[in-house]
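Q: What would this chain look like folded?
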Amino acid sequence: MIISVHQPQYMPWLGYFAKMAGADHFILLDTVQYKKNEWQNRNRIKTATGWQWLTVPVAFNFPETINQVRTINSQNWQRTHQQSIITNYNRAPYFEQVMTWLAPLFAIEWKTLAELNISLVRSLAGFLGITTLIHVASELGPFPETPDERLIGLVRHFDGKKYIAGSGGQGYMNLNTWSDAGIEVEFQDYHHPTYPQLFGPFEPNLSVLDLLFNCGPNSLNLLRNTS
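A: My prediction, written as structure tokens:
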């Protein structure tokens, strides 16, 4: 059984879903500390003048966890994000198909960032055709607080024998602890695919929305062939 874990992010990039597609179970780690100015409340799309942030305004008090962070809906960020996407992708080959699926999600008044991100990640995975089982850490019960022991506990919860970690994990994971636990660790080595885009030279590391709008049903093949 192969397990992977990641914080719930907003409209994540391609590598996020490639890691998910390579696992049997993918766990959304909503019980760790929220990090400002990272990928938990924002991501990027491509425009005629370069990439642009889509940022969800949030209210939080340090050191709240991701599932405690509130969205600020008074700023009507849903309308702003939807209009930015329409403006920049209305000429993309699969605009109608993707927008028909995406628009209803912007009509919901999400109360928390975790609620928003978890729903989006699950919806995006389904739209891509990923069949990996997706779980939420806060719904699985308490786990140790130390990073390695927490992840090992999550892997063991599903009787996992292999854990797919992000490349950044090499900087903080204690591999001896994992070896003692009898769990194999594989670090993701993601090679970003090049695909047709709007607006000039190719721009990597955008939200997976960019891939979906431009490549439609071929998106999952691109993800799987490069992870």
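The mean pLDDT is 95.
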